[in-house]
Amino acid sequence: MRWAFFIDGGMSLEKDLIKTIGEEAKKLSQRHHAYHNTLELEHIRKSNRVSNPGDKELKIPAYWSSEKKFNPFYVHKNRRQIAHSIAKKIQNGTYEPNPPQKMEIPKASGGSRTVTIYQIPDAAVSTLIYQQLLSKNKHRFSSFSYAYRNDRNVHFAIQDIAIELKELSRVFVAEFDFSKFFDSINHSYLYRQFNENGFFISEREDSVIKSFLKSKNVGIPQGTSISLFLANIVCWKLDKGLEQVGLKFARYADDTVIWSHDYQKISMAYDIISNFSKEAGVEINAKKSDGISLLCRKDMPSELAQRKEEIDFLGYSISVDNVSIKKSSVNKIKRQISYTLYKHLIKPLRGNKLVAIKIPANNKDTHLLSAILEIRRYLYGNLNDQMIANYLNGKSNRIFFKGIMSFYPLINNEQQLKELDGWLVTAIFKAIRIRSKLLKKWNFNRDNSFPFNIPHKDLTTAFKQQKVKGKKLLQIPSFFTIYKALKKGVTDKGIAGVMNPTSNGYNY
């Protein structure tokens, strides 16, 4: 989509703002409707498995009531008046965003990051500026920069790294981590980049950018579109420095991995990173930076004490042979599945009394069915094994990937996926054993009925054969099965055709 720039006049600006504010409000209202629908579906599912599911509790963000311009329904209704007012302020050079809400979001690596939530009209201004700046400046960014662009994404980075490393049996890699990247950026350094590196930024765009940064002496706010463009501008000099000495790299925001078969060249990476750190005001996190290592197979010799068989980048682990789901992401997936099994099969039986529980009878366990269905939705999205089989054998050409595995369309470590399948079967088996013991404590012995009488080795086959209302609803979902469908999808449609649409914002 081509966006009119501010120089096209006030009417064009106001028209663009009406459109962007409307889209921003619609996106948030649809998200709220989706949350409401999910809540309703979960309530229905709970009602089917317990006799007293309790009341459904619909929540809205607390800040909606603090200022009505946080409320998407109000903003969408009044978008024309709001856009008219903001357009006049931008034209007069008096526009400033209203005070935002701030939230602390825990980081997987420890600590937290501050996310800034602007009122919807201000978020729309930020989005409009971001789109305009990107449309006329993206050709200036490095082809090795993958974040916050409409022509690059996280999986393109993974693919490019994997292809490069596969051609090398041994390669030197450099990995550095920055401390509080967004929070620490030096404004003077940022503003210099506006003028020094050939970026097209109008006076009005410059004014709006500075209005978003006015409340801070250093750093750029996380959670708003305009900061995405600014983050790439800040790193332009870093990217250029790495390119000039002939280093290969992939950068996604402040996550960067650098590689070379030449040790002398890879050693230059530290100086380039260090100089950038000092100029931009962003400290290198020594504790989380692995520095320079030799990446090679386990059976290969190494002249460096620091060697590794794989590197972690975003949610993936990449070696010279395979692309895998990284260990911490695997653990997160396992925790989610384990909690689902606990929630459905174990937790209801632990307590001083049984409340609203359907006891297994006649080879039927509604709680087990609910657990399997939830795990399938988690892995597959809205797909089931029959739909996947139809796609793989060519009976169906149309398929949509939305489960957790759609965040990993490029994995090819089949051994890892088969091990995950084995882990899942064992986790289900163990949960059933615990459930059986807990049922006995309540004087319900079900040892001779399904699923409690199925040995571990027969679990997959027995669950596949057991039908519920004529359907194979208990078939255990498979990491390897969805991987095969994703692999075919990438070949048929490309990465963008199968990846989860929220991949670029996913917390790997």
UniProtKB/TrEMBL annotation:
Instruction: Tell me the domain of life.
Output: Bacteria
- Could you confirm whether the keyword Transferase appears in this record? yes
Question: Which named protein is this?
Answer: RNA-directed DNA polymerase (Reverse transcriptase)
Keyword Nucleotidyltransferase tagged: yes
Return the InterPro entries for the record. Answer: DNA/RNA_pol_sf (IPR043502), GrpII_Intron_Splice-Mob/Def (IPR051083), RT_dom (IPR000477)
Question: Any idea which GO molecular function terms this record carries?
Answer: RNA-directed DNA polymerase activity
* Family the entry assigns: Belongs to the bacterial reverse transcriptase family.
Record keywords, A-Z = Nucleotidyltransferase, RNA-directed DNA polymerase, Transferase
Reverse transcriptase domain residues: 86-318
